[in-house]
Amino acid sequence: MKKIQIINGPNLNLLGKREPSVYGHVSFESYLDALRAAYPSCEIAYYQSNIEGELIDKIHEAGFTADGIVLNAGAYTHTSIALHDAIKAVPAPVVEVHISNVHARETFRHVSMLSAACKGVILGFGLDSYRLAVEALASE
Ligand code: DQA
């Protein structure tokens, strides 16, 4: 059983309601049910916080026990050196994920403070970006 931790950052608790033209109409909870059903060989844990320090704490905790982390840090992606350092501090591979294609949006979204610390990056495939990241970690 591979242990995979999904971590969502700020405003991603509002998936399904938040800017549906960008992020879709599906809540993360209902997407998660389908994802877990599609990967019975993985134990998929989920955590969401709007608080940067809590995201760092979760990376510290899961980063020594999980086989991989799927991280959508939301807007902290573009600002947080502290999250970059947290990713580097743990042995678990981290896949950076974005629902939208951040490179097709505002220029402030074109920069990621996290990518260089991550194993890989998947973006622009809607919620399916998470499945692609789980697939990558599950087949490691
Ligand atoms: C996002 C992209 C970020 O720029 C934005 O701040 C988010 C969501 C995405 O999944 O597309 O909150 O990470």
Task: Explain the overall architecture.
The chain is of the alpha/beta class and 140 residues long. Helix content is 33%, strand content 20%. The protein is built from five helices and five strands, in the order βααβαβαββα. The protein has a five-stranded parallel beta sheet with strand order 2-1-3-4-5, with helices on both faces. β3 (68-72), α4 (81-89) and β4 form a beta-alpha-beta unit. The longest helix is centred in the N-terminal third of the chain and has 11 residues, at 28-38. The protein is globular and about 40 Å long. The model has no long low-confidence stretch (mean pLDDT 97). It binds 1,3,4-trihydroxy-5-OXO-cyclohexanecarboxylic acid (DQA). 1,3,4-trihydroxy-5-OXO-cyclohexanecarboxylic acid (DQA) binds next to loops.
Itemize the secondary structure elements and their pairings.
Elements: E1 2-8, H1 20-23, H2 28-38, E2 42-48, H3 52-62, E3 68-72, H4 81-89, E4 94-98, E5 120-123, H5 128-138
Parallel strand pairs: 1-2, 1-3, 3-4, 4-5
Helix pairs in contact: 3-4
The chain binds 1,3,4-trihydroxy-5-OXO-cyclohexanecarboxylic acid.
